[in-house]
Protein backbone atom coordinates (compact mmCIF):
# COMPACT_ATOMS: atom_id res chain seq x y z
CA UNK A 1 0.00 0.00 0.00
CA UNK A 2 1.60 3.19 -1.15
CA UNK A 3 1.38 6.27 1.06
CA UNK A 4 2.09 9.92 0.39
CA UNK A 5 4.12 12.57 2.17
CA UNK A 6 2.30 15.19 4.20
CA UNK A 7 4.71 17.92 3.14
CA UNK A 8 4.85 19.35 -0.35
CA UNK A 9 7.81 18.05 -2.35
CA UNK A 10 9.35 19.96 -5.27
CA UNK A 11 7.67 17.49 -7.63
CA UNK A 12 4.26 18.15 -6.14
CA UNK A 13 4.89 21.87 -6.15
CA UNK A 14 5.54 21.74 -9.88
CA UNK A 15 2.10 20.28 -10.58
CA UNK A 16 0.23 23.51 -10.05
CA UNK A 17 2.68 25.57 -12.07
CA UNK A 18 2.31 23.18 -15.03
CA UNK A 19 -1.48 23.25 -15.00
CA UNK A 20 -2.93 25.52 -17.66
CA UNK A 21 -4.35 28.73 -16.27
CA UNK A 22 -8.05 28.27 -15.59
CA UNK A 23 -10.57 31.02 -16.25
CA UNK A 24 -11.59 31.52 -12.64
CA UNK A 25 -10.64 35.18 -12.53
CA UNK A 26 -13.53 37.35 -13.57
CA UNK A 27 -13.11 40.43 -15.73
CA UNK A 28 -14.05 42.77 -12.91
CA UNK A 29 -11.16 43.60 -10.60
CA UNK A 30 -12.65 46.60 -8.83
CA UNK A 31 -13.80 44.75 -5.71
CA UNK A 32 -17.44 44.67 -6.81
CA UNK A 33 -17.56 41.22 -8.43
CA UNK A 34 -20.39 39.24 -6.83
CA UNK A 35 -21.28 36.58 -9.41
CA UNK A 36 -21.27 33.83 -6.79
CA UNK A 37 -24.29 34.57 -4.58
CA UNK A 38 -23.68 32.28 -1.62
CA UNK A 39 -26.82 31.45 0.38
CA UNK A 40 -27.49 29.70 3.67
CA UNK A 41 -28.63 26.11 3.17
CA UNK A 42 -31.97 26.81 4.86
CA UNK A 43 -32.66 29.55 2.30
CA UNK A 44 -32.23 27.30 -0.72
CA UNK A 45 -35.26 25.84 -2.45
CA UNK A 46 -35.55 22.04 -2.62
CA UNK A 47 -34.55 22.23 -6.29
CA UNK A 48 -31.45 24.27 -5.43
CA UNK A 49 -30.50 21.80 -2.72
CA UNK A 50 -30.94 18.88 -5.09
CA UNK A 51 -28.80 20.60 -7.73
CA UNK A 52 -25.98 21.10 -5.24
CA UNK A 53 -26.14 17.49 -3.98
CA UNK A 54 -26.21 16.20 -7.55
CA UNK A 55 -23.11 18.25 -8.36
CA UNK A 56 -21.28 16.79 -5.36
CA UNK A 57 -22.21 13.28 -6.47
CA UNK A 58 -20.96 14.19 -9.93
CA UNK A 59 -17.51 15.05 -8.54
CA UNK A 60 -17.49 11.79 -6.62
CA UNK A 61 -18.29 9.86 -9.78
CA UNK A 62 -16.00 11.74 -12.16
CA UNK A 63 -12.61 10.33 -13.21
CA UNK A 64 -9.45 11.89 -11.76
CA UNK A 65 -7.51 14.46 -13.76
CA UNK A 66 -4.33 15.05 -11.75
CA UNK A 67 -3.05 11.88 -10.08
CA UNK A 68 -2.83 8.33 -11.40
CA UNK A 69 -3.50 6.86 -7.96
CA UNK A 70 -6.82 8.70 -7.47
CA UNK A 71 -10.05 6.79 -8.09
CA UNK A 72 -12.19 9.86 -8.74
CA UNK A 73 -12.19 13.65 -8.75
CA UNK A 74 -13.32 13.69 -5.10
CA UNK A 75 -10.07 11.99 -4.08
CA UNK A 76 -8.14 14.84 -5.67
CA UNK A 77 -10.23 17.49 -3.91
CA UNK A 78 -9.74 15.82 -0.52
CA UNK A 79 -6.04 15.32 -1.22
CA UNK A 80 -5.58 19.07 -1.61
CA UNK A 81 -6.34 19.46 2.09
CA UNK A 82 -4.75 16.26 3.37
CA UNK A 83 -1.36 16.64 1.76
CA UNK A 84 -0.69 20.00 3.43
CA UNK A 85 -2.63 19.75 6.65
CA UNK A 86 0.58 20.33 8.59
CA UNK A 87 1.04 23.80 7.07
CA UNK A 88 -2.51 25.18 6.71
CA UNK A 89 -3.65 24.87 10.31
CA UNK A 90 -2.54 26.83 13.37
CA UNK A 91 -1.05 29.46 11.04
CA UNK A 92 -2.03 32.88 9.76
CA UNK A 93 -2.83 31.43 6.32
CA UNK A 94 -5.58 29.25 7.83
CA UNK A 95 -8.50 31.49 6.83
CA UNK A 96 -7.12 32.65 3.43
CA UNK A 97 -6.14 29.13 2.38
CA UNK A 98 -9.57 27.77 3.17
CA UNK A 99 -11.21 30.72 1.39
CA UNK A 100 -9.40 29.75 -1.82
CA UNK A 101 -10.13 26.04 -1.22
CA UNK A 102 -13.85 26.85 -0.99
CA UNK A 103 -13.55 28.68 -4.32
CA UNK A 104 -11.71 25.72 -5.88
CA UNK A 105 -14.49 23.37 -4.84
CA UNK A 106 -17.17 25.81 -6.01
CA UNK A 107 -15.40 26.26 -9.35
CA UNK A 108 -15.15 22.52 -9.99
CA UNK A 109 -18.85 22.06 -9.29
CA UNK A 110 -19.66 24.86 -11.73
CA UNK A 111 -17.29 23.94 -14.55
CA UNK A 112 -17.19 20.15 -14.36
CA UNK A 113 -20.62 19.24 -13.01
CA UNK A 114 -22.93 21.84 -14.60
CA UNK A 115 -23.79 23.44 -11.26
CA UNK A 116 -25.28 26.89 -11.85
CA UNK A 117 -25.48 28.00 -8.23
CA UNK A 118 -22.82 29.12 -5.76
CA UNK A 119 -21.30 27.41 -2.73
CA UNK A 120 -23.90 27.41 0.09
CA UNK A 121 -23.07 27.68 3.78
CA UNK A 122 -24.37 26.20 7.02
CA UNK A 123 -25.38 28.96 9.43
CA UNK A 124 -24.47 26.87 12.44
CA UNK A 125 -25.38 29.36 15.17
CA UNK A 126 -29.05 28.75 14.32
CA UNK A 127 -28.73 25.07 15.26
CA UNK A 128 -26.86 25.24 18.56
CA UNK A 129 -29.99 24.34 20.55
CA UNK A 130 -30.88 21.39 18.32
CA UNK A 131 -27.94 20.05 16.37
CA UNK A 132 -29.62 16.82 15.30
CA UNK A 133 -32.65 18.75 14.09
CA UNK A 134 -30.67 20.91 11.68
CA UNK A 135 -32.05 21.05 8.17
CA UNK A 136 -28.63 20.15 6.78
CA UNK A 137 -29.07 16.61 8.14
CA UNK A 138 -32.39 15.99 6.42
CA UNK A 139 -31.98 12.65 4.59
CA UNK A 140 -34.18 13.75 1.69
CA UNK A 141 -33.02 17.32 1.06
CA UNK A 142 -29.72 17.40 2.94
CA UNK A 143 -26.61 15.41 3.81
CA UNK A 144 -27.98 12.59 5.95
CA UNK A 145 -27.84 12.48 9.72
CA UNK A 146 -26.01 11.04 12.70
CA UNK A 147 -24.57 7.53 12.65
CA UNK A 148 -23.08 7.37 16.17
CA UNK A 149 -19.63 6.65 14.80
CA UNK A 150 -20.74 4.01 12.30
CA UNK A 151 -21.24 4.33 8.56
CA UNK A 152 -24.09 6.71 7.81
CA UNK A 153 -27.24 4.90 6.72
CA UNK A 154 -29.42 7.67 5.32
CA UNK A 155 -29.14 10.48 2.83
CA UNK A 156 -27.34 10.74 -0.52
CA UNK A 157 -23.87 9.76 0.73
CA UNK A 158 -24.63 6.40 2.36
CA UNK A 159 -22.56 4.52 -0.22
CA UNK A 160 -19.71 7.02 -0.34
CA UNK A 161 -16.40 5.17 -0.45
CA UNK A 162 -13.48 7.20 0.93
CA UNK A 163 -9.82 6.56 0.19
CA UNK A 164 -7.63 9.31 1.67
CA UNK A 165 -6.24 9.28 5.21
CA UNK A 166 -3.22 10.88 6.86
CA UNK A 167 -1.05 7.88 6.02
CA UNK A 168 -2.38 6.50 2.73
CA UNK A 169 -4.34 7.28 -0.39
CA UNK A 170 -5.49 3.67 -0.81
CA UNK A 171 -7.79 3.24 2.15
CA UNK A 172 -11.35 2.00 1.78
CA UNK A 173 -13.64 3.37 4.46
CA UNK A 174 -17.05 4.97 4.89
CA UNK A 175 -18.38 8.35 5.93
CA UNK A 176 -19.26 8.56 9.63
CA UNK A 177 -20.78 11.13 11.98
CA UNK A 178 -20.96 11.17 15.76
CA UNK A 179 -22.83 14.20 17.09
CA UNK A 180 -21.54 16.00 20.17
CA UNK A 181 -23.83 18.80 21.36
CA UNK A 182 -21.31 19.99 23.94
CA UNK A 183 -18.63 20.27 21.29
CA UNK A 184 -21.00 22.35 19.15
CA UNK A 185 -21.38 25.12 21.71
CA UNK A 186 -18.52 27.15 20.25
CA UNK A 187 -20.97 28.14 17.49
CA UNK A 188 -23.25 30.09 19.85
CA UNK A 189 -24.06 33.68 18.81
CA UNK A 190 -22.21 34.98 21.86
CA UNK A 191 -19.00 33.18 20.85
CA UNK A 192 -19.35 34.38 17.27
CA UNK A 193 -19.89 37.94 18.52
CA UNK A 194 -16.80 37.71 20.69
CA UNK A 195 -14.70 36.87 17.63
CA UNK A 196 -16.36 39.64 15.62
CA UNK A 197 -15.28 42.14 18.29
CA UNK A 198 -11.60 41.30 17.80
CA UNK A 199 -9.56 44.30 16.73
CA UNK A 200 -6.73 42.58 14.84
CA UNK A 201 -6.59 39.76 12.31
CA UNK A 202 -4.41 37.61 14.55
CA UNK A 203 -6.90 37.90 17.41
CA UNK A 204 -9.84 37.32 15.07
CA UNK A 205 -8.46 34.27 13.30
CA UNK A 206 -7.38 32.72 16.61
CA UNK A 207 -10.89 33.21 17.98
CA UNK A 208 -12.73 31.98 14.89
CA UNK A 209 -10.43 28.96 14.65
CA UNK A 210 -10.97 28.03 18.29
CA UNK A 211 -14.72 28.64 18.62
CA UNK A 212 -17.01 28.41 15.56
CA UNK A 213 -14.48 26.44 13.51
CA UNK A 214 -13.82 23.83 16.17
CA UNK A 215 -17.53 23.67 16.96
CA UNK A 216 -18.48 22.56 13.47
CA UNK A 217 -15.91 19.78 13.39
CA UNK A 218 -16.44 18.60 16.97
CA UNK A 219 -20.22 18.92 16.86
CA UNK A 220 -20.63 16.77 13.75
CA UNK A 221 -17.87 14.38 14.77
CA UNK A 222 -16.88 11.23 12.92
CA UNK A 223 -15.12 12.02 9.66
CA UNK A 224 -15.47 15.75 10.30
CA UNK A 225 -13.44 15.40 13.49
CA UNK A 226 -10.41 14.22 11.51
CA UNK A 227 -8.19 17.29 11.24
CA UNK A 228 -6.60 15.89 8.10
CA UNK A 229 -9.32 14.18 6.07
CA UNK A 230 -12.40 16.12 7.19
CA UNK A 231 -13.14 17.33 3.61
CA UNK A 232 -14.13 13.71 2.92
CA UNK A 233 -17.49 14.68 4.45
CA UNK A 234 -19.26 16.95 1.93
CA UNK A 235 -20.64 18.93 4.86
CA UNK A 236 -17.09 20.26 5.37
CA UNK A 237 -17.59 22.73 2.52
CA UNK A 238 -20.76 24.22 4.00
CA UNK A 239 -19.02 24.48 7.38
CA UNK A 240 -15.91 26.21 6.09
CA UNK A 241 -17.87 28.49 3.80
CA UNK A 242 -19.76 29.64 6.89
CA UNK A 243 -16.44 30.26 8.63
CA UNK A 244 -15.33 32.29 5.63
CA UNK A 245 -18.58 34.26 5.84
CA UNK A 246 -17.82 35.12 9.48
CA UNK A 247 -14.32 36.27 8.56
CA UNK A 248 -15.73 38.40 5.73
CA UNK A 249 -18.24 40.02 8.11
CA UNK A 250 -15.32 40.84 10.39
CA UNK A 251 -13.42 42.35 7.44
CA UNK A 252 -16.44 44.42 6.42
CA UNK A 253 -16.56 46.07 9.85
CA UNK A 254 -13.40 48.01 8.89
CA UNK A 255 -12.80 47.05 5.29
CA UNK A 256 -10.15 49.61 4.38
CA UNK A 257 -7.83 48.41 7.13
CA UNK A 258 -8.78 44.74 7.13
CA UNK A 259 -8.23 44.06 3.44
CA UNK A 260 -4.52 44.19 4.24
CA UNK A 261 -4.52 43.01 7.86
CA UNK A 262 -2.56 39.75 7.81
CA UNK A 263 -0.30 38.22 10.44
CA UNK A 264 0.13 35.08 12.50
CA UNK A 265 2.62 32.25 12.48
CA UNK A 266 3.83 30.80 9.20
CA UNK A 267 4.91 27.51 10.77
CA UNK A 268 2.57 25.72 13.22
CA UNK A 269 3.66 25.35 16.81
CA UNK A 270 5.63 22.15 17.46
CA UNK A 271 3.01 21.12 20.01
CA UNK A 272 0.30 21.33 17.34
CA UNK A 273 2.32 19.25 14.90
CA UNK A 274 3.03 16.64 17.54
CA UNK A 275 -0.59 16.55 18.68
CA UNK A 276 -1.75 15.74 15.14
CA UNK A 277 1.17 13.48 14.27
CA UNK A 278 2.32 15.83 11.51
CA UNK A 279 5.86 16.07 10.22
CA UNK A 280 7.65 19.40 10.52
CA UNK A 281 7.57 21.43 7.28
CA UNK A 282 10.72 21.19 5.19
CA UNK A 283 12.58 24.07 3.51
CA UNK A 284 10.89 23.42 0.16
CA UNK A 285 7.46 24.44 1.46
CA UNK A 286 8.80 27.27 3.61
CA UNK A 287 10.65 28.79 0.65
CA UNK A 288 7.67 28.26 -1.59
CA UNK A 289 5.28 30.05 0.75
CA UNK A 290 6.94 33.39 0.09
CA UNK A 291 7.01 34.71 3.67
CA UNK A 292 10.04 36.16 5.32
CA UNK A 293 10.68 34.33 8.56
CA UNK A 294 7.83 32.95 10.62
CA UNK A 295 5.24 35.67 9.97
CA UNK A 296 2.43 35.21 7.44
CA UNK A 297 2.26 38.01 4.89
CA UNK A 298 0.10 39.02 1.92
CA UNK A 299 2.79 37.46 -0.31
CA UNK A 300 2.18 34.00 1.15
CA UNK A 301 1.40 31.52 -1.64
CA UNK A 302 -1.70 29.36 -1.34
CA UNK A 303 -1.18 26.00 -3.04
CA UNK A 304 -4.21 24.27 -4.60
CA UNK A 305 -2.34 21.13 -5.80
CA UNK A 306 -3.44 21.82 -9.39
CA UNK A 307 -7.20 21.95 -8.77
CA UNK A 308 -7.07 25.63 -9.72
CA UNK A 309 -4.10 27.97 -10.09
CA UNK A 310 -2.32 29.11 -6.96
CA UNK A 311 -2.89 32.58 -5.54
CA UNK A 312 -1.37 34.77 -2.88
CA UNK A 313 -3.14 35.76 0.31
CA UNK A 314 -3.30 39.29 -1.05
CA UNK A 315 -5.39 38.07 -3.98
CA UNK A 316 -8.07 36.48 -1.80
CA UNK A 317 -8.43 39.17 0.85
CA UNK A 318 -11.31 40.88 -0.98
CA UNK A 319 -14.16 38.41 -1.37
CA UNK A 320 -15.59 40.59 -4.12
CA UNK A 321 -12.37 40.69 -6.10
CA UNK A 322 -11.76 39.00 -9.42
CA UNK A 323 -10.58 35.71 -7.89
CA UNK A 324 -13.38 34.74 -5.48
CA UNK A 325 -16.10 37.00 -6.95
CA UNK A 326 -18.63 36.18 -4.23
CA UNK A 327 -21.19 37.69 -1.91
CA UNK A 328 -22.90 36.18 1.13
CA UNK A 329 -26.66 36.62 1.00
From TrEMBL:
Residues 89-106, 233-244 form the Tyrosinase copper-binding domain. Pfam families: Tyrosinase. SUPFAM superfamilies: Di-copper centre-containing domain. The keyword Metal-binding applies. Keywords: Copper, Metal-binding, Signal. GO terms for molecular function: metal ion binding; oxidoreductase activity. It comes from the Eukaryota. Residues 1-21 form the signal peptide. InterPro entries: Di-copper_centre_dom_sf, Tyrosinase/Hemocyanin, Tyrosinase_Cu-bd. This is Amino acid transporter. It comes from Trematosphaeria pertusa. The lineage of its organism: Eukaryota, Fungi, Dikarya, Ascomycota, Pezizomycotina.
